[in-house]
Please model this.
Amino acid sequence: MIIKIIGGLGNQMFQYAYGRNMELSGKKVVFDTSFFAGNKNSKDTVRNFKLDKFNIATNAEFSPKRHLISDIWIKVKRRLGLNADVYFQSEKYFINISDNIRQESTLKKLLSNKAQESLSNIKNNNSISLHIRRGDYVTDKNTNMFHGTCDVGYYEKAISLIKEKVDSPVFFVFSDDIAWAKDNLKGSEFVFVSSPEIEDAEELVLMSKCKHNIIANSSFSWWGAWLNSNLDKIVIAPQKWFNDKKANKNQILPEKWIRI
Model:
């Protein structure tokens, strides 16, 4: 079985989790990583392979060789509006090995000093991760048409809901557009975490250490919430994950998460 690893960190984790499940069920798996070589000259957002930041335990081969069969299969699924199935964006693809995935989604290296400071603050408060995904969701016309963004109204509703359920919440804000976040989220209850000093893999781990989570329509914050080990966690997610109606039929969000 050949699985093409594409996209950002969150999508890479979905694809790895699916492949890991296939491997543990007895199938031979090859992860095609050729996307990351060709991506350097692409007009799309430049992505880097990030799975090597984590304690992945697979024996599968990671191959930089391009496999045309997997490329064709991805194109077919996209034309059918099955983008979530291209990336395997659902826990249904690996729910039976959840413990393995959680163990392997830990960082190889210690958190940086800046990330450690944020972690200490997160542990000492009723912490809520709040993720705002903008970047190419805003700047790229085609990406914006397909994905769309969560507007300020979504975050206001989510914040209000959390305040009804959690005493003295502190919102730890993660975003690829932290300036926009600061312009739109005002108040002493907001702590802005994202900075050039904290790697995205560290941000994902920090989100998972918060007690509760408000996520964007983003696989990155999906993983931050899914890896949260708090048994009483509240996860708030957007009802509409994609602008594309066909894509919204996919079962991306776990049943217990609150959709607004």
